[in-house]
Design goal:
Layout lengths: L11 H17 L6 H26 L3 H28 L4 H25 L1
Helix pairs in contact: 1-2, 1-4, 2-3, 3-4
Length: 121
């Protein structure tokens, strides 16, 4: 990696992934969920939390091939999160505007991760 930030915590993509995770957790924390919704939300939280975790882990490897691989895993998790957000949106059980906001943020993460992967290959 050429001239990397001093910490993964300084990466915009990491900060956005972390914020999305916290926002998703906070939004659903006090929601009364039926069994199916609870399963969907748990899957969403696993996927969004995996994005930032994989960015951090890849950054910590200090090798561009490993970093690239973990960016790919983070990107895959972001695509998974997009799937869960689509399902949650289409069930019409939650505030459409908030879910769309999560979806927009996640789509931004996909774009950033795609660019980072192109620049680290």
């Amino acid at each position: 990696m050429e001239n990397p930030p001093s910490s993964h915590k300084n990466l915009i993509v990491y900060q956005k992934a972390k914020t999305l995770t916290i926002d998703v957790i906070n939004y659903f924390a006090n929601a009364k969920l039926d069994r199916v919704s609870e399963i969907l939300i748990k899957q969403l939280i696993r996927a969004v939390s995996s994005i930032g975790a994989n960015i951090a882990e890849g950054y910590g490897r200090h090798y561009s091939k490993s970093y690239h691989q973990f960016l790919g895993i983070a990107r895959g998790s972001s695509f998974e999160a997009d799937y869960w957000l689509e399902i949650i949106l289409e069930t019409n059980k939650f505030d459409e505007q908030i879910i769309k906001k999560f979806k927009d943020t996640n789509e931004e993460l996909i774009k950033i991760l795609t660019t980072l992967m192109k620049n680290t290959s």
